[in-house]
Amino acid sequence: MAEVTPASPQAVYKRSSTIAADMGQTAERLRNPALAALNGVPFNLTAWIARSMCGDMGSVGNKEVFRHSDFIFMIVKGPNRRNDFHIDPYDEIFYQLKGTIYVKHRDAAGHTRIAEVKEGEVMIINAFTPHLPIRPPETLGLVIERPRVAGEQDGIIWYCDACGKELYQLALDCQDIETQLKQALDAFNADLGLRTCTNCGSVHPDPARQPPWQQMVPASTRDA
To answer: Residue ranges per domain, the chain?
Structure first.
């Protein structure tokens, strides 16, 4: 068997340098200036949350930490105001920073299951799984997703609480997850016609008036 001679450190360095140069030529990218300024700079996430997410955060309660990066790395603050099921074309990773949240999700047979995600726990929701995160007040979570490219759409579905039939669904070209998802949810909740079930006549509740988290959290805990 022929003897293999290890490459010298100089050869490895030159080889790596060549690869880096080639990558720079073929994959050079324009970066958002705010994102570029954060390159290699650590900061305190707790302080960022306190500074950037005070007050009411709207129906979704989400805010991206590194906007325009290769990942959607966002903090989500409770309470949220949602009773829709979101369908992401990619996996979503949940990590609960503070408190307990509840995530309803539907399996392939259409059965609804509820995951209780406690502080310190992590969970994945696979791509194309309809899911509804329910976030009580004073909860904080980290969610990691992939940005959508042009042509990739998210789905949003509402189901009747009374009979279980599908109320309404839409496809969303979601290029800005901080604003577009909230706008879609608020538009549905403002439309009484869309919230009225054509099968049984029930009116789907407005989550701003009847927050779903109140059904999940014991009254004794809410009043504490």
So the answer is: 42-159+169-189
CATH number for 42-159+169-189 (one of 2.60.120.260, 1.20.200.10, 3.10.560.10, 2.60.120.10): it is 2.60.120.10
Integer Cα distance of 126 and 204 in angstroms: 27
At residue 83's C-alpha, the angle toward residues 100 and 96, to 5°, is 20
Q: What is the pLDDT of residues 165-189, one digit of tens each?
A: 999 999 999 999 999 999 999 999 9
- At residue 37, φ and ψ (nearest 5 deg) are -70, -20
Phi and psi torsions of 90, nearest 5°: -130, 170
State pLDDT tens for residues 28-86. Answer: 678 899 999 999 999 999 999 999 999 889 999 999 999 999 999 999 999 999 999 99
